[in-house]
Design brief:
Layout: E1 2-4, E2 7-9, E3 13-15, H1 24-32, E4 38-39, E5 43-44, H2 45-48, H3 51-54, E6 68-73, H4 77-90, E7 94-99, H5 104-108, H6 119-132, E8 137-142, H7 149-164, E9 169-173, H8 187-196, E10 202-205, H9 211-221, E11 225-228, H10 237-246, H11 257-272, H12 277-291, H13 298-306, H14 311-322
Helix pairs in contact: 1-11, 4-6, 6-7, 9-10, 11-12, 11-14, 13-14
Length: 331
């Protein structure tokens, strides 16, 4: 179980907001495979605060996916508050404040992980958002901007202040901003933070790809939950496996080629409902790269699927590499 404000989730894992990936199709698959909560992709606060933007169906939650969260990125407390209120009014059930993004273009504009240098700004944003919404409000952090003592002190100050103000949850990616995704994730630090702030819901993040490892991290650090990000792209089966391992059962066997094909096609058909056919194929390629990692002939399958230029080509390629005429189908 995972409690985030007034949301009570049956299992201690959720699907992360992933810029460029977390559209309705990926969220729907996550829910179908057992994720109790998903997020849309991160949105700039100044965009989310604009009424015209949220009138676009692509940025609004669907009736069949609640609870669903929205994550916003910005550095102005008033704009972040307007965005949060607009997203709640649009139907989102939880608002996450991104103070972790390490993308250079985000840092140059003093957003995301840059704000770990400015604990007062972070807390001003949180306070303004908390004033205008009734849904849970969470924060996404990293463990400092860099490895300096000053950075750690700023991080710790944010955690302390947020805990004192009863933040609904802190999601912490246990790397510094400058490390991006390099080096080891400091799960010992997450355990230390949870020990110091026992009453604060703490969700761990970073390099969560294998169900057994995820459960080990969860239990060893004694944190409340984990958030699955890159590990879920092209692999919604991770949630089914996590559910099994958490209950003491062995992880299910990897999906057969037939099962992979079924999900790939289901995912693609949902994408086709969002984009026109040509754009859908191009957009879907980044997901195909990840789906192909489960194929026993990954490189060959990936080359064939990425070469598809339209819907017909893609369906033919999937049939060839995952269908009845493939010798590895179902094995």
């Amino acid at each position: 179980m995972l409690k985030i404000g007034n949301l009570i989730l049956s299992v201690p894992f959720i699907q992360a907001p992933l810029s460029g990936y977390s559209d309705y199709a990926m969220r729907r698959l996550g829910l179908d495979f057992g994720a109790p909560l998903t997020f849309s992709g991160v949105m700039l606060a100044k965009s989310a605060a604009h009424p015209k933007v949220l009138r676009n169906p692509a940025f609004r939650p669907h009736d069949d996916e609640h609870p669903v969260g929205a994550q916003i990125l910005g550095n102005d407390p008033a704009t972040m508050a307007r965005a949060a209120r607009a997203l709640q009014d649009a139907g989102y059930d939880i608002i996450d404040l991104n103070f972790a993004c390490p993308a250079p273009k985000v840092l140059r504009r003093r957003r995301g992980g840059y704000l770990l240098k400015e604990p007062e700004t972070v807390m001003q944003i949180y306070s303004r958002v908390r004033e205008v919404v009734t849904c849970p409000v969470t924060m996404k952090l990293r463990t400092g901007f860099d490895s300096s003592r000053e950075s750690y002190d700023n991080f710790y100050q944010i955690v302390f202040d947020a805990s004192q103000q009863n933040v609904d949850a802190l999601t912490i990616h246990a790397r510094t901003v400058v490390k991006k995704f390099a080096g080891a994730v400091d799960w010992d630090l997450l355990a230390e933070i949870k020990h110091r702030f026992e009453g604060t819901t703490l969700i761990g993040s970073g390099d969560l790809f294998e169900p057994q490892t995820i459960v080990q991290r969860l239990k060893a650090a004694k944190i409340d939950g984990v958030i699955i990000a890159r590990g879920a792209i092209g692999n919604p089966w991770i949630y089914k496996s996590l559910n099994a391992v958490l209950t003491g059962m062995p992880a299910p066997a990897p999906p057969t080629l037939a099962e992979q094909a079924e999900v790939i096609l289901k995912h693609f058909e949902m994408i086709c409902q969002i984009y026109d056919p040509i754009k859908a194929v191009r957009y879907f390629r980044k997901f195909l790269v990840h789906y192909c990692r489960l194929h026993p002939m990954r490189k060959q399958a990936q080359k064939a699927l990425l070469a598809a230029n339209d819907r017909t080509d893609l369906l033919i390629a999937v049939k060839r590499w995952y269908g009845n005429n493939h010798p590895l189908r179902g094995k």
